[in-house]
């Protein structure tokens, strides 16, 4: 490829359009696969230590000024499989970013630290005795400082958050402002389409330019196909550079004694499976968890304008601990496309009525602490995501729907739409048990969305039960590391970006 070209946002990126050779070979101290939460942070930390770092990113480089604030466009340009990535039964949409900056470019900015009760599970069940709250605290402090994480101010709680907060107060439920990584939020509500004004502190505008300032090089449009080893140690990767038309324009090899996989919890295990590496435990691709979410929308007697103001304002943490229910509710705004894609709008007349009243809708997003029951596999040609909500998790899902319905009603809603295929409507407290208890845990019954795939290369002390050690290195292959959401041995119930940033920082520091 030719020399990097200075792009509008200030990030220098090699792209398929720059390619002049059909075979490219590069050398580095560390090659990082994926430029999202884990990859960008690891790259910055390693470059800062003086390592020659190359970052390979399968997705395109889309500078912020090219973001359109139109969700249908963004799905095409910024998301994995153009927003169509789903489980094999088609009832779970698995959303991931696939562009320079990864999912952090399109995420909702919500920031939570890993709850201590989750870390305690990891210490007890996976031998991760090092990963205590005291050990991770300084990493959380640091990434939160770097990314301007703060409690939403009053002006960042939109109308939908205000009504929900009032309802929670009536019910006596604990509600808190969400924390977000954003500077002077423009309150446009377009987070899921990327932040045009670069207020969201995604990797695109923070750790990637910082890594580049220390000499890291970024290659977009470059999909890693195989991890290379020599004498049982990692020795680099093979990749293909693909233009926007899908045509391969070059093959690219990076020779490096250290390889960091940060391609996300779906692609990292696929890469290991394709490479036939690090799977002595048989756990690569197993243990997929995803916080299957529902968008429970409700109609209010007054205008809410769910597309106005900050996307996410407050959350209900009353039921977070598994002993108290094992779920959280986040108030969520949405635009017209998200309204139909993520909720259950019905068809025909009901659809027309739902959309005609769009102005009066508010939404609650449910997150549950699901078990790691899914699998990512590779059949030689394509990946497959097998995930069905487990019977053990169905009660938490139902508890979350009931709580969302109760909260909407207490907040003044007149109709609550259960996102089930037979589109159930709750109009009073008396309807809640009837409508929710009769839901079935069957394929295609609930419209689920995952924003948080996790767990497919889990960390642990036992090489026969886990893929990666607590320091991020795989048990089986020296010099091969994982630094993304695939590490998390259990689902963490809360939005995971801060956990990924903190773990990636720790892994890179220990590696350096
Ligand atoms: C719509 C949406 C909203 C979200 N909202 C929140 C939120 O509010 N708060 C929160 O905490 N979390 C949120 N998340 C989740 C959060 O962003 C992710 O948990 C986090 O970014 C995961 O980091 P990662 O490094 O594992 O993967 P990613 O950030 O997804 O990065 C992986 C990167 O690797 C690239 N890649 C994949 N395969 C290859 C390959 N073979 N070769 C090279 N590159 C490859 C991908 O294109 C991608 O860019 C959201 C996610 C989405 C999709």
TrEMBL record:
One Pfam short name: FAD_binding_2
Gene Ontology terms for molecular function: flavin adenine dinucleotide binding; oxidoreductase activity, acting on CH-OH group of donors
Residues annotated as transmembrane: none
Chain sites annotated for binding FAD: 107-110, 224, 496-497
Ranges for domain Glucose-methanol-choline oxidoreductase C-terminal: 382-504
Span of domain FAD-dependent oxidoreductase 2 FAD-binding: 29-63
Name of the protein in its database record: GMC oxidoreductase family protein
Family: Belongs to the GMC oxidoreductase family.
Species the sequence originates in: Alcanivorax nanhaiticus
Gene3D superfamilies reported in the protein's UniProt record: FAD/NAD(P)-binding domain
